[in-house]
Recover the amino acids of this structure.
């Protein structure tokens, strides 16, 4: 099985910067933004985006973390038992522009679950999706608003996002 | 009917016999031990049973069985109970009076004997109640029941709690020279209990029956027996303390005998874990020390007899919450292999096991059975002590499938059961 | 680790890892109860039956709320109103419920072992909400959760359980849970109410409440259950209260930051003096909300981990 690095540390940093700019452009500033990271790696990416926005605008948008385990559509079919992690959304989403952040967009089911979860917290003005990698093979009509890199993959390939915070290095590889 | 049992190892403790011989049965009696069987073998009217490598012994006598008829025919009838006995190698059973109506008068005794004569394939010896209705208050018609055929009296299922009543019963029984069988349980100490009181019951949250419940009454009844001179037989001994009391009483020369059941010499109260109601029995199976004391008691003669306390119940009755399930194990068809396990464990020799199932119970109930002497009634069994079997309760001939031994791999299998010289069971 | 139990019948058969897993899962469940929309779709379409043979408002209400927060379909079945009065057996009642589509049965019964009978004979997942004097896993788990919340760690704590231990399923489950998580457990009560041979589980047995309280971190007071005890185990409530009732004075022997808990409802003036009862109330309220989180965790883990899908 060959391993291909499709994004290295430098590129990742520039990509996150670009995404932060795009978010600010589309939302005309940082005022009504609320950033929510999904699962483990989405949280760290969300943190970096929030930091970048603070750097650019002087305002740090409120940050939340979301565990979608209880919203999965497949939890009774899995052979492993995913542990339910904590969800912390210490702000109201009512009428705000929620920016969901995940590392990889694949079938779209995680995003669907995340949207359902957010809706249980209130009625946002909008939900926008940031992903570092879009690897295709959607099973639901979901699209990302901000994409780091788009890559064609085979179903038997794996896309792994490695981050300094969790894996010691910043890179995206296809295995 | 003529039967020739060829080449079996004949174990008959009543004659001190343990050797390979041929046995000839004619007209319902033991005709003899022929040395030369050539002529007999050519006689086509003679049924030949090949017994080489097998054991031939007097048919077993079970001193403690509940046949449930009259009154509880859904659990067992005299017909099915006797069929089960035959399959288990028992040619005689002694049945307890806790039927409905209670066997506390001669007409119930006669009913049981009539049913046994017409429908039972083995011999049935009824036990009469000590008190009317087994209520423990007034004496039952012991004399008339004895005349009708009862071989002992007992309120089994319940104790006689009033010591004065028990004393009078013992004294009165002496007139008819019959033993009093004691179900030793202090119902105040045992009240509400459903299993042995100990660590297991504490952890399972089930009320326990302490050893003291049995020992208190064993001590009392031994004392009363010594006072009155009656023959006291202690049913289903379950505690180490009771074994000790009986041992001491025997040393003093008291006229006391005792029985142990296969579940009490095989299981401990750990078998209850998981709330298996098939283990629920009264007296309960107890701790390891108690089980070992019973084995010790069998070994040194303190416990004279192996009896099953066969207590069948329907499946529905047992498939309920542990507290609600009735007490009892259906034991006729597992007794032999479990008793043979004692031989394998070095507790008893094979002849000793046979003795505790034949000549000794026969002595206690004063029966002329339990022997293969020439001229005796031909109650004989042939069994293979080495054949491995897997206990399958669905194959029981008893209506009661309530056994904790289902699925156990044991050795020992009855091949032929002969009563009054006729084959009533063959495998 | 994977929580792979199809049933939760008691704490005796759970490993310490499994117990910790339930507590951790409950942490996340607690958050659901703090939102505006207190619902997640995890058990959507799953039918859960609350089969309560004994009266109980708290435990049943707690389970019901937990089930609804997980979006399950809930059926409450109280046999005193129905077929059981007509003589239907426990098994038949449960089988009927299973035939109606119940995949999880939460059972409370007055006889020890009833949940085991169901687990043996049915296909559904069974959760024990209290069986006779045997176990009450959800109560013990929520007690452990509450203690962990307040004291951070359970290992090394001195926990004292006071009262009618022999008839208490709460005591038994707590003993298992606390010992597995490394606490030092002391049981106190009149000798007639201490179960035979309980020292074999590593608890220390005391008949004197004052000595048992020395240096205690946590005290769990049990209710004197009038409906469960036979008379004759102690002479009078007054005498019981004198020797085994908890007062502010007695509590001074425990550590200063001692936590007093009670599974409720409290017999004021018997197990606890009025002032102690007032103090205990705040912890009880905590226990109530923790109870829902724990029960949500139990339902979630059993419905998903048991191969029911």
């Amino acid at each position: 099985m060959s391993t291909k690095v499709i994004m290295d540390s430098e590129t990742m940093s520039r990509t996150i910067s670009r995404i932060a700019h795009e978010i600010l452009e589309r939302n005309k500033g940082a005022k009504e933004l609320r950033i929510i990271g999904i699962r483990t790696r989405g949280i760290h990416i969300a943190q970096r985006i929030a930091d970048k926005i603070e750097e650019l605008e002087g305002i740090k948008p409120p940050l939340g973390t979301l565990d979608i385990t209880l919203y999965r559509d497949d939890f009774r079919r899995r052979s492993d038992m995913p542990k339910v992690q904590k969800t912390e959304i210490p702000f109201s989403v009512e009428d705000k522009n929620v920016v969901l952040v995940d590392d990889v967009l694949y079938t779209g089911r995680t995003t669907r679950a995340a949207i359902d979860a957010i809706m249980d917290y209130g009625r946002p003005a909008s939900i926008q999706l940031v992903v570092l990698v879009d690897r295709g093979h959607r099973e639901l009509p979901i699209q990302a608003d901000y994409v780091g890199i788009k890559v064609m993959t085979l179903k038997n390939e794996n896309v792994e996002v490695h981050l300094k915070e969790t894996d010691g290095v910043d890179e995206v590889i296809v295995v | 009917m003529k039967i020739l049992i060829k080449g079996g190892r004949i174990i008959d403790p009543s004659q001190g016999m343990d050797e390979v011989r041929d046995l000839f049965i004619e007209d319902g009696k033991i005709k003899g031990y022929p040395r030369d069987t050539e002529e007999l073998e050519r006689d086509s009217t003679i049924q030949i049973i090949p017994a080489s490598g097998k054991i031939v012994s007097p048919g077993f006598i079970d001193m403690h069985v509940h046949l449930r008829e009259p009154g509880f025919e859904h659990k067992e009838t005299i017909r099915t109970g006797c069929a089960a006995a035959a399959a288990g190698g028992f040619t005689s059973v002694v049945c307890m009076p806790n039927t409905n109506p209670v066997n506390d008068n001669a007409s119930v005794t006669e009913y049981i004997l009539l049913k046994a004569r017409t429908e039972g394939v083995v011999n049935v010896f009824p036990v009469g109640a000590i008190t009317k209705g087994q209520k423990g208050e007034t004496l039952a018609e012991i004399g008339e029941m004895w005349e009708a055929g009862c071989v002992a009296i007992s309120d089994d299922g319940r104790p006689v709690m009033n010591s004065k009543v028990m004393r009078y019963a013992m004294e009165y029984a002496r007139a008819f020279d019959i033993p009093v069988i004691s179900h030793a349980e202090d119902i105040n100490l045992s009240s509400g209990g459903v299993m042995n009181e100990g660590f297991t019951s504490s952890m399972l949250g089930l009320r326990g029956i302490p050893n003291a419940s049995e020992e208190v009454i064993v001590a009392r009844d031994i004392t009363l027996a010594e006072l009155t001179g009656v023959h006291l037989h202690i049913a289903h001994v379950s505690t180490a303390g009771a074994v000790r009391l009986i041992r001491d009483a025997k040393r003093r020369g008291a006229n006391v005998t005792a029985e142990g059941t296969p579940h009490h010499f095989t299981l401990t109260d750990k078998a209850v874990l998981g709330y298996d109601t098939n283990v629920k029995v009264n007296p309960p199976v107890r701790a390891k020390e108690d089980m070992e004391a019973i084995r010790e008691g069998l070994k040194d003669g303190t416990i004279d007899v192996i009896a099953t306390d066969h207590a069948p119940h329907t499946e529905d009755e047992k498939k309920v919450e542990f507290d609600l399930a009735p007490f009892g194990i259906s034991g006729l068809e597992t007794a032999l292999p479990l008793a043979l396990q004692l031989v394998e464990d070095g507790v008893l020799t094979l002849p000793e096991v046979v003795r505790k199932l034949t000549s000794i119970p026969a002595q206690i109930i004063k029966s002329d059975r339990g022997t293969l002497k020439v001229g005796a009634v031909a109650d004989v069994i042939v069994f293979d002590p080495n054949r491995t079997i897997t206990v399958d309760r669905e194959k029981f001939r008893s209506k009661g499938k309530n056994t904790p031994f289902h699925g156990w791999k044991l050795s020992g299998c009855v091949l032929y059961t002969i009563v009054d010289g006729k084959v009533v069971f063959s495998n | 680790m994977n929580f792979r139990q199809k049933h939760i019948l008691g704490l005796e058969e759970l490993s310490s890892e499994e117990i910790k897993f339930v507590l951790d899962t409950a942490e996340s469940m607690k958050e659901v109860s703090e939102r505006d929309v207190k619902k997640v779709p995890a058990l959507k379409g799953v039918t859960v039956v609350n089969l309560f043979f004994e009266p109980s408002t708290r435990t049943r209400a707690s389970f019901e709320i937990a089930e609804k927060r997980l979006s399950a379909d809930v059926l409450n079945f109280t046999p005193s109103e129905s077929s059981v009065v007509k003589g239907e057996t426990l098994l038949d009642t449960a089988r009927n419920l299973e035939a109606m589509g119940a995949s999880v049965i939460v059972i409370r019964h007055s006889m020890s072992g009833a949940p085991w009978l169901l687990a043996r004979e049915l296909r559904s997942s069974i959760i024990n909400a209290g069986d006779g004097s045997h176990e009450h896993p959800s109560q013990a788990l929520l007690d452990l959760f509450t203690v962990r919340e307040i004291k951070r760690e359970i290992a090394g704590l001195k926990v004292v359980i006071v009262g009618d231990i022999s008839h208490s399923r709460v005591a038994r489950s707590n003993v298992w849970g606390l010992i597995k998580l490394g606490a030092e457990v002391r049981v106190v009560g009149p000798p007639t109410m201490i179960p035979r041979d309980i020292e074999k589980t590593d608890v220390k047995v005391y008949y004197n409440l004052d000595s048992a309280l020395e240096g205690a971190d946590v005290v769990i007071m049990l209710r004197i259950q009038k409906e469960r005890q036979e008379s004759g185990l102690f002479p009078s409530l007054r005498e019981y209260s004198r020797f085994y009732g908890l007062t502010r004075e007695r509590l001074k022997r425990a550590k200063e930051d001692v936590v007093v808990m009670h599974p409720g409802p409290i017999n004021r003036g018997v197990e606890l003096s009025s002032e102690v009862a007032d103090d205990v109330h705040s912890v009880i309220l905590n226990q109530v909300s923790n109870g829902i989180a724990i029960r949500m965790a139990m339902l979630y883990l059993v419905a998903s981990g048991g191969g029911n899908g």
User: Anything to note?
Assistant: The mean pLDDT of chain A is 91.
